[in-house]
Amino acid sequence: MSLPVHEEVINSDAVAALERERLQGMPRWRVTSSRRFLVTGSRMWNDRETIFAALTEVYGQYCVGEDGRLVRVILVHGASRPVKINEILYPGADQLAQEWAEAIGVRFERYPADWDVLGKRAGPARNQNMVEQEIFICVAFPQPPLPGHGWGTEDCVKRALRKKIPVINYGTVPVAGVQPQRVGQWHAG
Q1: Which of 18, 28, 30, 73 could join 105 via S-S bond, C-beta 3.0 to 4.6 A?
Q2: Domains (range + CATH), the chain
Q3: pLDDT tens digits, 103-126
């Protein structure tokens, strides 16, 4: 069984402009390491404001390392395609997270599932592949699945928890025992 290879995308124009803006007034520290944030969530997610606020909150907690130096953040997501239901197009958590990354100049890695080769095993295989990528924290955006849609977010969160990856749930329902919370409730411990 071959796992899908991830696609890496770097938006260099956004990185340059937004990093300059973000770092104005801050000491010019050297970036010494990177942290991968895994985003998992519903394909029917369409709350852009919550995704942007939640990822900004987590980013703000972890963009500076323990040594006071900047940490390069890399956003990892499953590259799920938008879903159209009753003539409404839902971008999904993956797409919205990528839009956030592009907007502030964070590098991202896409891990699309290979449905053609792996069939129903593609989602779980992709999720396992993502949690194996030295993930620092998992940020979840679950909501109740609609009939005919799977439980991929729960599968990904369970895999993250088995790997001892901390999970923050900003969704609308509990997932794998992790209770949901609103933006502003969570603080790094």
Answers
A1: 18
A2: 7-20+29-169 (3.40.50.1380)
A3: 989 999 999 999 999 999 999 999
